[in-house]
Amino acid sequence: xxxxxxRGLTKTYRQGDVDVPALRGVDLALxxxxxxxxxxxxxxxxxxxxxxxxxxxxxxxxxxxLNGTDLGAMGEAELADYRLxxxxxxxxxxxxxxxxxxxENVEFVMVLQGRPRAECRRRARYYLERVGLAELAHRRxxxxxxxxxxxxAVARALAAGPRLVLADEPxxxxxxxxxxxxxxxxxxxxxxxxxxxxxxxxDRRVMERARRIVRLRDxxxxxxxxxxxxxxxx
Amino acid sequence: MILLTLAWRNLWRQARRTLITSSTIAFGLxxxxxxxxxxxxxxxxxxxxxxxxxxxxxxxxxxGYLEAPANHVFLEDGxxxxxxxxxxxxxxxxxxxxxxxxxxxxxxxxxPGGLLGIDVADDPQVDAxxxxxxxxxxxxxxxxxxxxxxxxxxxxxxxxxxxxxVVMAGVGGETESQLGRVRGIFSTGIDELDSFQVVASxxxxxxxxxxxxxxxxxxxxxxxxxxxxQTPVWREKLAALPLPAEAQVLTWQxxxxxxxxxxxxxxxGNYIWLLFVLVMVTFGIINTIxxxxxxxxREFGMLRALGMKxxxxxxxxxxxxxxxxxxxxxxxxxxxxxxxxxxxxxxxDLTSLSPDVLKTAGVMMDPLMKSELSPQRVAMLTGxxxxxxxxxxxYPALRASRVPPVxxxxx
Lengths: 234, 411
Prior knowledge:
Helix content of chain B: 40-55%
Shape of chain A: globular
Largest sheet of chain B: 6 strands, mixed, barrel
Oligomer: heterodimer
Strand content of chain A: 25-35%
Helix content of chain A: 25-40%
CATH superfamily of chain A: P-loop containing nucleotide triphosphate hydrolases
């Protein structure tokens, strides 16, 4: 069974008196463990699709199932729990909590999940070490570089134990070397943890690392095809 | 715990703004504590003065006297009333008194006045009036004719120490008059006392109000309790005694209704003023917390995206408000406490307004006003400020919890 099964997804936004279609009947299935890139020009619907799959927004039409559960049948509280327990987010702008240290940022989602304090601390330290930032655990985001902040965001997303990680242009604010390092790390974690990654990008160098590419244009899937594999994690 | 840590640190993101807001709240509370302390101090002083120079915490007198004081309205068996009250074991002092409206005459003039016959050794009036003597001495127990008169009365009667004074009063259709001599002249600063009151021994008073059918009358029995708070308790106990039917037990509030009304109006005025201060503080708090929430719209959207439920986000902002309230209240206690300590120790000197005692609602008020702040008042004002702060934070907190995550992340 597919981890994510989206059918006929349509999303239309109202801007003044005009209806703006962001997605027009998108079908997308993601298997467990996939490392997939959503690519397309600005305005193609990448972020909208990620928001719908991540239950940050609701479709105008169509259905989304996560591991067999229909998101459309959930209320707001259930969707919040869905995001909390099953989805990790990595944002373009890092979106770390500025007044918490790197370690506390990584712990944060686990605290919301209600895990015991010791477990939160143990897993947070593990993932910070895994992303290479153990020695910076007590620094606050403003004392970290962009790449370091995004690594903390990756650690936060994975430490909570999600089945699916959604990353919206995770390397957009990073230089090419840092971006490459981050993508490599995400690929390794995908391979080690078996967590499904779906990230959006319009950067060709990032696309090359994906094992599958889904192209979007004008709110529709253009050419679903496989990735090149040369930068995939073995 | 991490959420409380987050709330505390969020509070200090904009430290200057937080300090300004907390200082605003703190000054509001501090001002309220000082204002209420001074007000309560003045009121308590007036009450103590009214009780001390008046008829005590409780008075037993004839029913109807309060509404229409007259010489013929007295406790016929005053001695029996006194005996029962003393036997009840009242914790304080019990003072038998005779009071008659009289004509006070000297060789030079005649004036209306009031004769007050008291136990010149034991009555609390001794403690109140003796320090105000400006000439002569207090009355001796064995002096059957001694009188004390006020400074203004002495001036108008043109009477000096040793002068002969005739006291004449009508009682029950008969006129009684007695001759006395001025042993002392007092000056309380209260015109009603200095112009009107003549103090004599109880024996002098009994000659004006003689015994009938073997029963010694009294105008009243005044009771001065050691503990003000026991007034309602002892009122009930004395009312339950088998007193003569015409006897009535009254509290100082019933004896001094003008003072009670003044205090109530003054309190109400103070609270209206405090309400204005609270309203201004409220708007300041709402503005600050709302700004802080609007600045963090994207962050709140991120928290919602991570799975934080609206109720928890509401709780986070309310926790920030709670911590702000806590910091502000501690600051307010320090400011108000310092102000109260200074005013309780040194007082606010209004002598420049009036060198003599101030008269308000018929009682004496010392121009040196000292603050008196009870724990109950501190708790009440703290509770009001705390509640106001929390209510002020409610709208911004609700606003924060209602932002849809995707819209917030777009900002």
